[in-house]
Amino acid sequence: MRSLPLGISLPLTSSLDPNPALTLKRPNHHSSIFLHAPPKSGICRASQMVELFPTLSPEIVVREARIEDCWEVAETHCSSFFPDYSFPLDFVLRLDRLVGMLFGFSVPSGCKRICLVAVVGSSIDQSLYIGSEDIKIGGFDAKFTLNKGYVAGILTLDTVADYLPRKGPVRRRRTGIAYISNVAVRERYRRKGIGKQLVAKAEALAKTWGCRAVALHCDLRNPGAIKLYRGGGFKSIRVPEGANWPHPRASPDVQFNFMMKLLNSTTN
């Protein structure tokens, strides 16, 4: 089963606008584990069917996202980062994220991008596969599963280096550093170590890519995320005075903490 990247979403505002199609801006959603609850209303209900069948002591499996995870990844992302959006904009957000994952967006040659998911109560033995290897959707095998899996958390890992400081006077793209973003855990599964498991899996994957370090930007207003990363061995990197380092696009009042961890170092 092929894995898929987490696509790039439409720029968005942090609140509804009378003409959202024309004035949407990208929110702050980089490398933060959001601590507020998902929206009370919304059109997306598919992944909430698990509420009818609670799982006792659910097993958490962190793996690469598959095509059958697309809708739940979109739901997890949007309910975490846009909890106050209501219909129809919340539905548009989920469709945008779904399209981005199914068809993907171009990644520079030699770079990688992947989405990791933390799944509750999922195993191969519990899955019923339907589809054919001869059918393709967006470049992926059109093989879907009906299983007990439930996406509880997500994380994106890439080596595109868009948000890493450029190297040298010619501002060359950084290599050998993997970048973590879009970390989100559903409200009912928070404070269970899922974010920590996602980050650990990302670090292990980055090593297989030949990376020497991982980096991220964390919202200074999110103490829970800062505690997670510092506890995992990430160190804050001070931006030199006068330097123009890239950072995630967000509201002007949002401040980020650029953090990095050497993969061959011990966790403090």
UniProtKB/TrEMBL annotation:
This is N-acetyltransferase domain-containing protein. GO terms for molecular function: N-acetyltransferase activity. It comes from the Eukaryota. Pfam families: Acetyltransf_1. One of its GO terms (cellular component) is chloroplast. CDD domains: NAT_SF. Gene3D superfamilies: 3.40.630.30. Residues 60-264 form the N-acetyltransferase domain.
